[in-house]
Write a structure and sequence with these properties.
homodimer; alpha+beta; 9-stranded antiparallel beta sheet; 19% helix; iron (chains A, B)
């Protein structure tokens, strides 16, 4: 069973971010003013409608499985990885900075409710006025918070001339270069904003993205979205390292959430990193997402020995080749020259590390009799110029694994710093 | 926590279905004769490689979560619904009946291993010869059986002249008629064979379909596949009825697994139903699958009152309109004339019932800023001519819900009877 995480103290009453009172919002709902947009400048968690039935969704269920929303950093980065992912990238269609601010304020209020396991909006799924659309779509009623986290970032395209943010673009938020053998689909790449929803129940994650999409209507639209699965559904410290669709353990060398020194050094943007209008990003991070199609049929015809030489670890235990245990210390230079683990190792990359929280995906078929499956790679880092870009450059050139991979989508975002009580997502950027 | 289901007694040693000894198979592996096809006429569960580490995948984990494979009926029909689905339809590319038999024998042996939580093939993921491809792809190592069931059926197209099965086509295995407002995608519909994989961990279900796909190489290829989520991850009898993406409880009126009289009457094909060469189907069932895209954005703009009038139940409790409790008895004729529950009710359809085990799906976006989401409808029944076809005919004509739905894929299969010890899937059909 999942450990009992203390219920966040921030969940009731929710702090309206835009100064709209509960009474005002109810009046707006009653007037029929709330259509697809759901809310005006503020949305209030339905205080009386915390989901209360018994859990039905595995170890992540239970009303206690709440990850606090507020904090120095956004949740969903150093948070113990949840079982399921729904990731969405949005094109902002708002035409003014005020509209963008109101969108992020509304998202914040909804995120406070959703991550606390509450229905969104006054009345929730069923408690509103019968002649108005329910403020919550209802499919996550009874499913609790299930450790839901919502993590939001801004892509390079948000810093064009639409919202007066060009000067606030961090120097580290560079456009990713083209890598050899990239096969990127533009409609499935990039986006002004991204939202990573992770939870121990897929329906909770999907409900969250759907809710934010609904709230965004008229101000932002989903550009592309990706479901993922395959991480541990409990935070049991004894749980084995999850395996990717090549059958190998994936994430062995990830920094631990408790290793704050490494996180500060490698994941969180530090105040000294950016100056002036871009200083807002301190406390945030950079996310690189890559949809990596795996040619599993080809891989499956490869011998065990070759698979292990390509990865650099044994398939069973996950130990580095020549060692006995998964977590044994090793010298990357002793691994095969083109092995994935050697090339990606910090010692071969100036000490650079990324915090990876990728998910497996399976999206039907490719029309050729093969499953369209792979890894949706998500990596957080302090500076993509020092981490993802050089590491991927080396991998794309030399990695024996590349033969079995095809990067079909890509994006990079500056992930906002954490939200303080009463604040909103991106406030550090937009209040400059 | 999931109840402790007794471990099946059929799991070790697995019974080779094709008469190939373990020694013979190992020899074949060593000779390099096993490539993409993985196995010859028989595959043996790796007896020493039952997954043994501690569970990491929620309430469905644990080595005891095994649903027996053998029995009078296939598992995965009356089995308590698992949390996750991977469904695949296959085109048979084999050109002889013997090849088709060998495919189904190999699938049976693999299914015995997979549903027992074991790795497939001699050596499993890591215990084989280093210079041969592993017989198991490995991504489900450590994940246990997780209540995996594999349920296999034959579509109308299997009964053409390729395998001499035309005379064995059951009279009840009719081609589904076109319904008003169908928007079927042919490449995502039908298929000679179908496999429904259900488990309480998505990776276990995906691994199973991948494994059967791999085994089928050269004899059958995936035509289309669908992932689903959103059912209860435990068999806790107190768990609330799951909700679909319209936010309503879905499955309230489903026959219970313990209601064997109803199952015999409505779900299992009875010996009296078919004669002669088609008599093999007794003990089987008919599966109708429909991928139903839901226009959730339109639905979400509809008032609570209209939603409830369209469905015929209250959104919160799931009670029939005018009643207090979800499971209250009600007269369907008292519900709104075009409500879904009224039109689909057995009393309006000559007593016909289906056993539904549909799953929610979310497949990225539709390219227009909307989530491509809905219900993957799966319904088992004794005779589609008396159940799905008349019910769907009435719904397509009158159902107020139809306005919000689009059927994008469809298929019907005669699901094989259960497999006795030592038998194989479809043996009743193919040994005629």
């Amino acid at each position: 069973m999942a450990p009992k995480t203390p219920r966040t103290t921030t969940s009731a009453p929710a702090a309206p971010s835009g100064g709209v009172s509960r009474r005002g919002l109810l009046a707006a709902l009653g007037s029929g003013a709330v259509g697809a947009g759901l809310v005006g400048a503020g949305v209030v968690a339905a205080e009386a409608s915390a989901r209360s039935s018994s859990g039905s969704s595995g170890a992540g269920g239970g009303s206690a499985s709440v990850v606090p929303f507020h904090g120095e950093h956004q949740a969903g980065i150093a948070t113990d990885v949840q079982a399921n992912l729904h990731f969405a990238a949005f094109d902002v269609t708002a035409t003014s900075r005020d509209e963008l601010v109101s969108l992020l304020q509304d998202w914040t209020a909804a995120a406070v409710a959703l991550t606390a396991g509450k229905e969104v909006g006054a009345g929730g799924a069923t408690g509103g006025r019968p002649l108005a659309p329910p403020s919550d779509t209802g499919e996550a009623v009874d499913l609790h918070a299930n450790r839901l986290t919502l993590t939001v970032g801004a892509g390079p395209s948000l810093f064009d001339d639409r919202f007066g943010l060009a000067a606030a673009r961090p120097a580290a938020l560079v456009d990713l270069p083209a890598f050899p053998a990239d096969a990127l689909v533009p409609e499935r790449s990039d986006g002004d904003l991204c939202v990573q929803a992770c939870a121990d129940d897929p329906q909770v994650a999907v409900h969250a993205i759907r809710t934010l999409t609904r709230i965004a209507a008229g101000r932002a639209a989903v550009r592309w979205a990706q479901l993922g699965y395959g991480r541990a559904a409990t935070v049991d410290p004894g749980a084995p390292t999850p395996r990717n669709l090549f059958g190998f353990k994936d994430g062995t060398a990830n920094p631990a959430a408790s290793d704050t020194a490494t996180l500060d050094d490698q994941v969180w943007v530090q105040p000294s990193d950016e100056q002036g209008a871009a200083a807002w990003v301190a406390g945030g991070s950079y996310l690189v997402a890559r949809r990596i199609r795996m040619h599993i049929e080809t891989w499956d015809r490869t011998s065990l020995q070759e698979q292990e030489q390509v990865i650099g670890r044994t398939k069973g235990s996950g130990a580095p080749l020549g060692h006995a245990g998964e977590h044994d210390a090793f010298d990357a230079r002793t691994l095969p020259a083109s092995s994935h683990v050697r090339l990606a190792h910090p010692s071969m990359n100036g000490g650079a590390q990324m915090l990876r929280r990728g998910y497996n995906f399976t999206d039907g078929t490719d029309g050729l009799g093969h499953l369209d499956a792979g890894l949706f790679f998500l990596a957080y880092q302090r500076d993509v110029r020092k981490a993802f870009i050089p590491i991927q450059t080396a991998l794309a050139r030399q990695d024996a694994l590349s033969e079995y991979l095809e990067h079909t989508a890509s994006g990079v975002w500056a992930v906002f710093p954490g939200v303080p009580q009463g604040g909103y997502l991106g406030q550090q950027l937009l209040s400059v």
